[in-house]
Amino acid sequence: MTRNDRTSPLNDTGIGVFAIRPLDPIEDAQLLHGWVTHPKSAFWMMQEARLHDVEREYMAIAASEYHDAYLGLHDGEPAFLMERYDPAHVELVGLYDPQPGDVGMHFLVAPTDTPVHGFTRAVITTVMDELFADPRTRRVVVEPDIRNKAVHALNESVGFVPEREIEKPEKNALLSFCTREQYLAAREAAVLAAVRGVTT
């Protein structure tokens, strides 16, 4: 897995401009601590983390050959966290049969009291665009908590297909996959629906 140390090209989604840059585990730790310990981030499972716990977690990711973390920007301001990992070595070892070109993904939208309609969909679209910008990526793998119905629906809206429930040490998860073709088909369907005035 090759580390991506560039800032992504800007992605204009219609509700602002999104970009992704490598996460600095020290400089960004205070910001992340506020996000991951917020009650709305319960499924991130770091509710009790202290600042040094967050620093240590993301320093370990920065040092890993198989795991990367990025900070997502909306109109230049921090707005979400993205993680990319190699599921053959991290998170899913022994829980499924990895295929060449599989890439694991986590993302967390910064908690807010003033949500913007379509924002989370724009974030996951930005994340998926970034992952599939690498021509070696053939399929994205996710394993959200089985109870997180909102993210299951969001994942399916961009092309993920649930396969089965798996038992991880920290949670029961819904293993789901999205190929490049499934993602592009979902994006095309969303564009057509928007043209026709249908909310997706």
Can you put this structure into words, describing what you see?
The chain is about 30% helix and about 25% strand. The chain is globular and about 50 Å long. It has 5 helices and 8 strands; from the N terminus they run E-E-H-H-E-E-E-H-E-H-E-E-H. Residues about 1-5 have low confidence and may be disordered. It has helices spanning about 30-35, 50-65, 120-130, 150-155, 180-195; strands spanning about 10, 15-20, 65-75, 75-85, 100-110, 140, 160-165, 170-180. Helix 1 packs across helix 2. It has an 8-stranded mixed sheet with strand order 1-2-3-4-5-6-8-7, sandwiched between helices. It has about 200 residues and is of the alpha+beta class.
Q: Which keywords apply here?
A:
30% helix, eight-stranded mixed β-sheet, alpha+beta
Give the total of beta strands: 8
Helical content class: 25-40%
The helix/strand order is: EEHHEEEHEHEEH
Main sheet: strand order:
1-2-3-4-5-6-8-7
Calculate the mean pLDDT score and round it: 92
**Category by helix and strand content:** alpha+beta
Strand fraction: 25-35%
Radius of gyration: 16 Å
Number of helices: 5
Tell me, what's the shape?
A: globular
- Low-pLDDT segments: 2-6
End-to-end CA span: 34 Å
Largest sheet: 8 strands, mixed
List the helices and strands and how they pair.
Layout lengths: L10 E2 L4 E6 L6 H8 L14 H13 L3 E8 L2 E9 L16 E8 L9 H14 L6 E4 L6 H9 L3 E7 L4 E8 H16 L5
Parallel strand pairs: 5-6
Antiparallel strand pairs: 1-2, 2-3, 3-4, 4-5, 6-8, 7-8
Helix pairs in contact: 1-2
